[in-house]
Design brief:
glycosyltransferase, eleven-stranded antiparallel sheet, hydrolase, Maltose phosphorylase, domain 3, globular, 6hp_glycosidase-like_sf
């Protein structure tokens, strides 16, 4: 039997003895703001943001030894104790022995249940944890069942340490900040309201209250309280052997107050009796609130077993309904795995790029790429409000083509970087266009390009190479004109600026400069002379896509010209001789950024759309040809690949030197995806990648070969051990993009190999050691690392929907062009998907009765609700935007027959 098994098609799963596996954790959260992580022994933490942690912050590397966490104790009349989490001193002593207690985890979207047999006490404990969808507290429903043949008299004690402050205070002023605590008890629980948030840059009054409340299943509240760590563990005691329990201390009553101590959410309930097979339930609420009224509401609402069970049911339903995409292939485990992949983008929206134990870097929030890549998944599951999100996201673009890197809590809110860090990631201009194009294809809303949006402004100017001495806080964070009005331009103008400025910012090889890094943040030590061949290829494709959208805008709207900022005309010169002149490119960029460094006159220049489109096509074609001529490395008749980067000394990263082959996956992905690589070159790339990068047993395609040197002229990644993170790990995001690129170019078997290797390794629990889903990467031994919060999930889902199942939008029309392999159809020759498109729920079934291979079958019939659909060239079926709009709100069934 597999260690981890799915229990239904919703993706719910179970695993036995999970505490025997290191580094496991599970996300619990609500859209109201609480973000929790929970381990198999109910470790982990809970917080709203960096400043407000309810439970002590944890990293994956101290999960195994942290005891300052959720616990609940049971005591018998003969003095035996047990922790329902297995974290008493005596229970831990039994670990890995024949007397180790049996335990099991059951879990699904945003709910987690721990079962433990407390064998020494003849009890079974079940603890269900979840966060209600619209609340900022976490439920612990503890159920104690008597497995003995005789009645038992028991005493139960909740024990949850309350951290109650900023994660910065985990070490910085830990003792001092405890002095800010104001602790009190009432009949329902323990409350901690610090007087202020400690920050030597400026202390602030605190308005948050951290609490732990408790009830039994008939509404009874605790009998006695232990509101400080000292009172609970006692002198010389510990969280695994608390003296207050073992010495049966009385504690304090409701109405007690205490100041300036480490707080403890510990309280004891009245002794109770349980008959054989009878269950006693306890309800614990762990939360953060900004007012007494909210706490009173919660206390008076969630105090019965029936209400908790109803809230649990609602929470399960809410998150299941969110994941509106469903896959059915021959592999049932893969289908269920995909439920978690589709759920992961929601987790990243809530948790950002931090706030889970592996993601212990940074201070929370999302980055620029996250804003755009998360929209990809939303367009496939919740497309309704994505258009507005896209418009607001463009407010982060500067007039010099760079963008804000500090993102506020509100949609469209970007903050000035006052730390003086002029960090420019050269890939950032790529993602907005990719997301906007998908939006237009899914909705047909080409007019979004005409939406007027402001620009971001802070002291960083001239693409991060200088500071605007005239800027201050009073200026605000929006670009202004010389008349002090907020300047706005169309989204098309924003896209043009982003792509044209990059075209002129090149290094000594006439390749786009790497700057602070590209997608690979660890390439951060080549700011002066580094160049990114990989993303130059990506931008060549983007320029061609932007030209295509401009032509579409002209055809669909009848608009022949647009007004753009006068200064942009300099970047749209038709002199193609400039393309090979590096110094001239730099001069043009210098003049443009100088003209935009503080305020602009706001004058507009009218240009024809066809002229702009032609200009972009010329630039794209020049880039493609240049890359093909200068960056392709042809080793022999079977092998070859593209160079990916130039380091700070101007040396190419890929090729043959130091007696070994050097290959990086990133350069291949974007060369394939953006039609730089020819079909013959793709064949050589895939052969080379399979030989030098592929390791099936650890997830598939490594990010790079082992350079065996610490390249301080390129980035910190080369200081990492080989096979870890950016240095040669199987990095899921780039592997998925490799698969996506191969599918786009018709290399379906090769693309599926990349996708399936990631899925197989994720599902191989003995290797991956993770719950279902896709991690950021697999390390050298195949363990999944940095789970849940990765853009790979959005791209994996996008690839499965639009490429594998071929459910694609084309300016609002629906195109059905499957690229399923024979092995993906079930024994009846069927594969299906439930997907959202144009606000409709579509159940699409591909019927391949002879289980033919991709490339051998054609579409012979396409039916939607018993009505025949048009088929083009036996290749794809389609439904027009107008036809989709005429469909009602019920589910619609489409059957495509393949012969």
């Amino acid at each position: 039997m597999k260690p981890l098994t799915f229990t239904n098609d919703n993706g719910d799963f179970t695993i036995c003895q999970p505490e025997s596996i290191s580094s496991l954790y599970f996300p619990l959260a609500s859209e109201a703001g609480l973000k929790s992580a929970i381990s198999p022994n109910l470790g982990g933490d809970a917080k709203i943001n960096q400043e407000h942690f309810l439970l002590e912050p944890v990293s994956v590397d101290n999960l195994h030894n942290n005891r300052s966490t959720r616990n609940f104790w049971v005591k018998t009349t003969d003095g035996k104790f047990a922790s329902i989490t297995g974290t008493s001193a005596s229970q831990e002593a039994q670990k890995f022995s024949e007397t180790q207690e049996k335990s099991r985890i059951h879990a699904g979207f945003m709910w987690h249940q721990l079962e433990r047999e407390l064998s020494d006490l003849n009890l079974k404990a079940t603890t269900t944890s979840f966060v209600p969808t619209n609340e900022t507290f976490e439920f612990m429903l503890v159920s104690i069942t008597n497995t003995a043949t005789t009645p038992q008299e028991l005493t139960a004690t909740a024990a949850i340490p309350i951290f109650g402050r900023s994660a910065d205070n985990l070490r910085d002023h830990r003792n001092v900040t405890s002095m800010l605590h104001r602790i009190r008890t009432d009949k329902a629980g323990i409350y901690v309201t610090p007087t202020m948030s400690f920050d030597e840059r400026g202390h602030r009054l605190n308005h948050q209250t951290y609490y732990v409340m408790g009830f039994d299943d008939v509404g009874n509240t605790p009998k006695t309280f232990f509101p400080t760590v000292e009172s609970f563990i006692g002198e010389g005691g510990s969280f695994t052997h608390p003296r207050s329990l073992f010495e049966n201390e009385t504690g304090v009553t409701a109405g007690y107050t205490c100041d300036g101590r480490e707080a403890m959410g510990a309280f004891r309930f009245e002794t109770f009796n349980v008959a054989p097979n009878e269950t006693k339930n306890f309800i614990l609420l762990l939360g953060i609130s900004d007012g007494e009224q909210t706490i009173d509401r919660i206390k008076n609402t969630y105090n019965s077993l029936e209400i908790v069970q109803t809230a649990l049911k609602e929470t399960k339903t809410y998150w299941q309904d969110k994941v509106s995409v469903n896959f059915k292939t021959a592999d049932t485990d893969f289908n269920r795995f995909m439920k978690w992949v589709c759920f992961q983008p929601y987790l990243r929206r809530i948790f950002g790029c931090s706030f889970l134990p592996h993601h212990d870097y940074g201070r929370g929030g999302r980055g620029w790429r996250d804003l755009w890549q998360d929209c990809l998944s939303l367009l496939l599951m919740e497309p309704k409000d994505v258009g507005e999100m896209i418009v607001n996201n463009f407010k982060g673009v500067r007039l010099d083509g760079t963008n804000a890197t500090i993102i506020g809590e509100k949609q469209g809110e970007f903050l000035a970087d006052r730390n003086g860090i002029s960090r420019v990631w050269m890939d950032h201009a790529l993602w907005p266009l990719m997301t906007t194009k998908l939006y237009i294809d899914q909705t047909g809303d080409i007019s979004i390009l005409n939406k007027q949006v402001s620009y971001f402004k802070d002291p960083h100017i001239k693409r991060g190479t200088a500071f605007d001495s005239l800027w201050n806080d009073e200026y605000g964070n929006q670009q202004r004109t010389t008349t002090d009005d907020i300047y706005t331009g169309s989204i098309l103008e924003h896209l043009l600026i982003q792509h044209l400025t990059g075209f002129y910012e090149v290094g000594q090889h006439n390749i786009y400069r790497l700057r602070g890094a590209d997608w690979n943040d660890a390439l951060d030590m080549a700011n002066e002379n580094g160049e990114s061949v990989a993303f130059t290829a990506a931008y060549s494709g983007n320029l061609m896509e932007l030209a295509s959208l401009i032509r579409l805008l002209e055809n669909k709207t009848g608009i022949e010209s647009v007004e753009i900022l006068e200064e942009i005309g300099l970047l749209l010169k038709n002199d193609t001789e400039i393309y090979n002149q590096i110094d001239r490119k730099h001069q043009i960029l210098e003049v443009y950024t100088k003209n935009c460094q503080h305020k602009v006159n706001g004058n507009k220049l009218k240009m024809s759309l066809s002229e702009i489109s032609l200009n972009l096509i010329q630039k794209a074609n020049w880039l493609r040809h240049s890359l093909q001529e200068r960056e392709w490395i042809d080793f022999n008749d079977e092998e070859g690949w593209y160079n990916s980067y130039y380091d700070n000394n101007g040396k190419a990263t890929d090729g043959y030197y130091n007696d070994r082959q050097h290959m990086m996956l990133t350069g291949q992905v974007f060369s394939i995806m953006n039609y730089v690589a020819t079909e013959n070159q793709i064949k050589k790339i895939t052969t080379s990648a399979d030989r030098y990068l592929y390791r099936k047993e650890i997830g598939g395609y490594r990010l790079n070969t082992d350079f065996k040197e610490i390249k301080t002229d390129l980035g910190r990644m080369f200081g990492f051990a080989y096979g870890e993170k950016e240095n040669g790990a199987v990095f899921s995001h780039m592997t998925v993009m490799y698969a996506n690129a191969l599918y786009r170019r018709g290399f379906v078997k090769e693309g599926w190999k990349a996708l399936k290797s990631l899925a197989d390794t994720s599902l191989n629990f003995e290797t991956s050691r993770i719950y279902p889903g896709i991690p950021e990467y697999f390390r050298a031994d195949g363990h999944g690392v940095y789970h849940y919060l990765t853009g790979a999930a959005s791209w994996y889902m996008l690839t499965m929907v639009t490429e594998v199942f071929g459910v694609q939008g084309k300016t609002g029309d629906l195109i059905l062009y499957p690229k399923l392999l024979a092995e993906q159809f079930d024994e009846n020759g069927k594969a299906s998907i439930v997907a959202q498109f144009a606000g409709k729920t579509l159940e699409i079934t591909y019927d391949n009765p002879n289980r033919k291979e991709f490339g051998q079958y054609v579409i012979t019939s396409a039916v939607c609700d018993e009505e025949q659909l048009p088929i083009t060239d036996d290749t794809f079926a389609f439904i027009t935007k107008e036809k989709l709009q005429s469909l009602d709100e019920s589910n619609h069934h489409i059957t495509i027959t393949l012969q």
